[in-house]
Amino acid sequence: MTGELLSELRATTRQALAVSAGDIVDELGLSGLLVDADRGGLGLAEPEMALVATELGRDLSASAFLSTAVLAVTLLSRSDTEVGADLLAAVTRGSAGCAVAIAAVTPANSSVAAVPGPGAGWRLSGTAVVVSPPGVPGIVLLAAKTPDGVAVFAVDIADAVLTPADLLDPNRGLADVTVSDAPGRVVLHPECAHSGGQIAYRRALIAVAAEQVGVARACLDSAVEYAKTRTQFGAPIGSFQAIKHRCADVLLEVELADAVLADAVRHDSLPDAELAFIVATRAAVTGSEACIHVHGGIGFTWEHSAHWHLRRARVNATLLGPPSVHRDAIARSVGLTTTEEVPG
């Protein structure tokens, strides 16, 4: 997509976020963003995905973008079953929101087990942490252990108990799902679940990294604007060296994160996505903390929006696993060992 069209998509997304009280995934029909045009989707790709995620990071609205438009669509697009194809069509039309288990797209071990049920069905029991859209999703995609390996199943929300997680950022959409002898339909058999999960994991890293860049940019813009207008000792606080240096440090972090993210989008490489996630998360945390400090006393209050950006940055930092997991993966990709003997 050309730069002009990317700019148009950015402007449209910002306008929708500014005027909408709902989810822009519904407002702009973004459920099918990554679905091929011949399957009813928009036929766009990761540059557009990253752009939308960046704008969502600036706004912090609750959205089905990560859960449905990125994770669910990526898994369902690689389904080897009729159930998966039907669900993908429903998601693309915007008629089905999906919650997706983190274990379905990350190396985390699944704590859900599946046993054969009546006929060709399966019964699932266990608990999982999921990324959920606003409101109540219609379907939950769960990774579950079977005799042949870990497969991905679709479970109707009526057969599961979904409890929103008590986290720093309630708009992130994390929840706990419990199933007990719940009927499940196979979406991806073990082999496809593994390959599809790897692709979804990489896309999730890029989407969350892009959101972190959006968080960091919003904080930088807010801090700079406040530093221009807030006066102390008869001068704007932005004229003081300490404030200048703090904002300049954040700018460097943001520009670096943006560049690493752009590189990860261009290359189909998991280590590049891991690196983008790490660098963008550092920028988001640094930027949100600096934003609070630059705003002084008002920045620490509940009424100001600064703390919400810090909340999102912190929750995103561990959304796809501990930071050490991503750093170890990067180290292994360049031939470094992750543990070394300490000389005695």
From TrEMBL:
The keyword Acyltransferase does not apply. GO terms for molecular function: acyl-CoA dehydrogenase activity; flavin adenine dinucleotide binding. Residues 206-334 form the Acyl-CoA dehydrogenase/oxidase C-terminal domain. Its cofactor is FAD. Keywords: FAD, Flavoprotein, Oxidoreductase. It comes from the Bacteria. InterPro entries: Acyl-CoA_Oxase/DH_mid-dom_sf, AcylCo_DH-like_C, AcylCo_DH/oxidase_C, AcylCoA_DH/ox_N_sf, AcylCoA_DH/oxidase_NM_dom_sf. It holds the Pfam family Acyl-CoA_dh_1. Belongs to the acyl-CoA dehydrogenase family. This is Acyl-CoA dehydrogenase FadE18. It comes from uncultured Mycobacterium sp.
